[in-house]
Amino acid sequence: MSLSPPHDLRPASATPRVPPPAAWLGAAGALPFITLAVFAAADVAGARDFHLFALNAYAALILSFLGGVQWGLTIAHGGADGMWGRLVLAITPSLFAWCALLMAPRAGQLPLAAAFLAVLAVDLRAHGRGLVPRWYRRLRWPLTVTVVLSLLLAAAA
């Protein structure tokens, strides 16, 4: 299964543009992080704890989604060699996110931010091994920075 379109004739060193659907949906997915972090920091409507919880819940969902990406990559590219380890790694973000949701809302942001950085490291490793499209790193970096900064803003609220 090819991860890049057959018409992509750029040299391997060139990083292609992020496809517009992925760019737009990724940016749209970052908006709740930004909005909830700002609302928590500003204590909009006196509902800081609600906004912190909502931010943690959304972060947990997105971490689970990113783990699902890794699961999909593993089953799409994997033979049996190393599959156990890669699949365990793929479910780890969901388990970690669930544990963060069990914490008090104010306590969850820093562990969630760390988890997003860890998942980025896994994604960059997959990029280096050619397991993701060449544009994937270009999508993940700014989204992860946005998410981590949002979580840190909320942690400081």
Could you give a short description of this structure?
The protein is an all-alpha fold. It has helices spanning 20-42, 48-77, 83-101, 109-128, 136-156.
Brief descriptors of the model:
globular; mainly alpha; 5 helices; 157 residues
Describe the structure.
The protein has helices spanning 20-42, 48-77, 83-101, 109-128, 136-156. It is globular and about 50 Å long. The protein has a domain at 56-149. 27% of the residues are buried. Helix 1 runs parallel beside helix 5 (136-156) and helix 2 (48-77) runs antiparallel to helix 3. It is built from five helices and no strands. The model is unreliable at 1-11 (pLDDT under 50). With 157 residues, it is mostly helical.
Helix share bin: over 70%
Distance between the termini: 46 Å
Q: What structural class do the secondary elements suggest?
A: mainly alpha
Radius of gyration: 17 Å
Secondary-structure element series: HHHHH
Main sheet attributes: strand count, strand direction, barrel closure: none
Residue-averaged pLDDT, rounded?
90
Low-confidence runs of at least 5 consecutive residues? 1-11
How would you sum up the global shape?
globular
Number of strands: 0
What portion of residues belong to β-strands?
under 5%
Number of helices: 5
Outline the fold blueprint:
Elements: H1 20-42, H2 48-77, H3 83-101, H4 109-128, H5 136-156
